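Researcher: Let's do a round of design. I'm pasting the structure tokens now; please hold your answer until I've finished.
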């Protein structure tokens, strides 16, 4: 069915962009099987690390970091609420996001009464809230971030049946193996793998066995790591050996992509704990070298610095085994999502994964997707409009196809897997 006017085209794109089910290919969420690891509710939302760092901007020297960390979650939430919502207006992306969530959950935002919101959610079970939030946000499939070195999480996989919810899939996270090798060796040894700090044949075998066993146990869809911006590849160092001799061979054996999230500088202000991480410039040529050396290995890549985005997108024109994804963390703001989505579509057409949520608290799916869907829809509509002016009229089916590629198919196709129903 051809769409005859630009106005109808724009309305159609907006409607479909806002409502199409999506695959969220990187989050820190869990299915209900994981008990307390699944964070949800008003207090968890307010103590999100994005909001913690923003509220400290309004605290003076008298208020110590230690005092904040000594508070209960509820007290921390009240403190943040006062600073960011009562004493100032919640215009930042993360603060605005909390308001979007309240609004979509059906709460009276104008009452500004936190306890009402808390009470309204108190009677819900975790499973009910998971269903409700997935319904409101139209998120169909959620990728978790799964770390076997986390004792609480490991127990779920080893002794409590792992993930049983088909709406969730696992991604095996391997940060310590690449970024904190001495600690990883300790962990591996305590789990019964004969690894040594020295890079020996035996260590390669045991690391590979560890990775393989966990990929199978979790049914992990990809291997994932976050890297500092000074990651270089190839180099005469531990990371290069680990990637070349253990991680890529294991990914190839299991036919799964390797996801690299590059450009984080951890704990620039340790007082802020998880909220104290920063972004830094990265070297795109590390990804270039990986893509060239391993043409049959797929790489999912996102970078944290704005300054790297254009070059990374250009690199994806050169390597079909590179899939650029998401507007990560500090880039997950209106202006950056718009800018990045524009030049990604201009350079790659629709062969990109424009967004992932990176949610840590379940209800965040509501705002992160609502805000991004709107922008992605607008950018796509502006591209169709230019075509329309030359007489090329997209059909509703074509709009659906394109959005489905952006929101679902590009991920599943890259994996070489069927999207679960
Ligand atoms: O490394 C990551 O996966 C990051 O996304 C997180 O560590 C970060 O804290 C975050 O939540 C960003 O959105
Ligand atoms: Zn993340």
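Researcher: That's everything. Go ahead.
Model: Designed sequence:
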């Amino acid at each position: 069915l051809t769409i005859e006017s630009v106005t109808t085209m724009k309305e159609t794109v907006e409607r479909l962009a806002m409502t199409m089910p999506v695959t969220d290919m990187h989050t820190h969420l869990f299915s209900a099987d994981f008990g307390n690891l699944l964070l949800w509710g008003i207090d968890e939302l307010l103590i999100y690390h994005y909001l913690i760092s923003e509220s400290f901007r309004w605290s003076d020297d008298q208020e110590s970091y230690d005092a904040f960390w000594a508070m209960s979650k509820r007290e921390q939430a009240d403190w943040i609420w006062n600073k960011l919502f009562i004493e100032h207006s919640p215009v930042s992306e993360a603060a605005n996001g909390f308001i979007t969530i309240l609004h979509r959950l059906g709460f009276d935002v104008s009452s500004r009464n936190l306890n009402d919101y808390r009470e309204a959610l108190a009677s819900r079970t975790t499973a009910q809230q998971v269903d409700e939030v997935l319904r409101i946000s139209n998120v169909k499939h959620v990728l978790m971030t799964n770390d076997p070195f986390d004792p609480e999480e490991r127990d779920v996989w080893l002794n409590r049946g792992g993930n049983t919810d088909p709406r969730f899939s696992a991604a095996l996270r391997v940060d310590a193996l690449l970024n904190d090798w001495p600690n990883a060796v300790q962990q591996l040894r305590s789990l019964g793998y004969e690894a040594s700090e020295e890079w020996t044949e035996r260590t390669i075998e045991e690391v590979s066995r560890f990775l393989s066993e966990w990929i199978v146990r979790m049914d992990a869809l990809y291997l994932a790591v976050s890297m500092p911006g000074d990651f270089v590849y190839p180099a005469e160092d531990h990371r290069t050996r680990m990637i070349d001799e253990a991680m890529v061979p294991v990914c190839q054996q299991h036919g799964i992509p390797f996801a690299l999230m590059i450009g984080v500088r951890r704990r620039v202000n340790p007082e802020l704990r998880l909220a104290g991480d920063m972004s830094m410039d990265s070297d795109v040529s590390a990804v270039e070298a990986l893509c060239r050396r391993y043409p049959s290995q797929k790489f999912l890549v996102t970078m944290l610095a704005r300054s790297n985005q254009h070059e990374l997108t250009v690199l994806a024109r050169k390597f079909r085994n590179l899939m650029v994804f998401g507007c990560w963390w500090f880039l997950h703001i209106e202006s950056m999502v718009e800018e990045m989505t524009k030049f990604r579509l201009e350079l790659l057409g629709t062969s990109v994964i424009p967004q992932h949520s990176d949610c840590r608290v379940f209800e965040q799916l509501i705002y992160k997707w609502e805000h991004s869907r709107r922008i992605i829809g607008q950018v796509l509509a502006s591209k169709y409009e230019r075509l329309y002016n030359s007489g090329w009229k997209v059909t509703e089916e074509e709009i659906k196809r394109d959005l489905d590629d952006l929101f679902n198919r590009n991920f599943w196709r890259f994996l070489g897997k069927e999207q679960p129903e």
